[in-house]
Amino acid sequence: MRVLNIELGPKRTVGRFFRDDDDLAGASSLGAALTGAIDDSENLIVICSPYAAKSKWVNEEVIRFKSRRDPSKVFAIIIDGEPNASDYGRHDQECFPLALRRVVSSVGIVTDEVDEPIAPDLRKEPFKKLIVRMVAGLLGISFDSLWQREQRRKRANLLKASLAGLIIAGIFKHPAVSIKFRTPVS
Q1: Contacts 24+ apart (CB under 8 A), 136-139
Q2: CB 3.0–4.6 Å: which of 1, 8, 46, 57 could bond 12 by disulfide?
Q3: Do the beta carbons of residue 42 and residue 15 sit within 8 Å?
Q4: Mean of the pLDDT values across residues 47-53?
Q5: How confident is the model at residue 20 (pLDDT cuts 50, 70, 90)?
Q6: What global pTM score does this model have?
């Protein structure tokens, strides 16, 4: 397991990220370190695929988080498969674990009540936009305001680069600046 610190620049951080690198296949429970990390987490990001949907441990992590924290703080990203495919009998294509698709009670019981996670699809959405969408959710701010800010930053950088290019071109066109290229005479 690893804990990652994600920084967005001077004095701006999204926070610490816990990443489960342990192999839980032979374990009978999530383990103290993992349950402690889930209990201490403000958000949970679930990477969704048919493998994740079939994983007992991914489902257990979602149950643990949703039963102890605000379920709206569970964020999903689709990397493979199809959301809610099991509702149509295509269980092998389902990308959401059951606990992500259902409401979980405060005692950790997965109910029959449908919970519809909002999950951007990495295969369909530009990576930059997906990252901004995740950061907006993690920070609890509007995606549109953060996306517009990012677009303004890109335009400002493009304008700065264009102006720098024009200034440099202007310097070399000025009569006082003369650069001559000579070909050596043999």
Answers
A1: 137/43, 137/75, 138/14, 138/15, 138/43, 138/75, 139/14
A2: 8
A3: yes
A4: 95
A5: low
A6: 0.67
